[in-house]
Design goal:
EC 4.1.1.44, globular, 2 domains, 118 residues, AhpD-like, mainly alpha, 77% helix
């Protein structure tokens, strides 16, 4: 939970925890333990590197629902806008231009919101 909070921020995790129901509690436990407690807590990659990889994978697989959340998390992980455009170029080459294009649209919109311009 500490890693999840350090990446996503207390506000996001508090909202997720408050919205948890008996139905999705096993899933919330699974992602907290598996993704955050196991994978994101490993020492080899930095949180910045994990952010870049995560966003590239989300975009490359077309899992766009979590892109904005992970873009907002870059404020905590240190991944930069330059890092993300480089990652999206890789997505375009290896996974397809339409996927990268859609992810870039979400990334731009999220940065505009973060900058207070949206």
């Amino acid at each position: 939970m500490a890693t999840r909070r350090s990446v996503l921020g207390d506000a996001h995790v508090d909202r997720a925890e408050a919205a948890k129901t008996p139905f999705d509690e096993p899933f919330q436990t699974f992602i907290t333990e598996g993704a955050w407690g196991s994978v994101w807590s490993r020492p080899h990659f930095t949180k910045r590197e994990r952010s870049i990889v995560t966003l590239a994978l989300l975009a490359g697989m077309g899992n766009f629902d979590e892109v904005a959340m992970h873009v907002r998390a870059t404020a905590n992980t240190g991944a930069t806008r330059d890092d993300l455009i480089e990652a999206m170029l890789h997505v375009a080459v290896y996974c397809g231009v339409p996927k990268a294009n859609h992810a870039i649209k979400i990334i731009k919109q999220t940065y505009a919101e973060m900058d207070g311009a949206a």
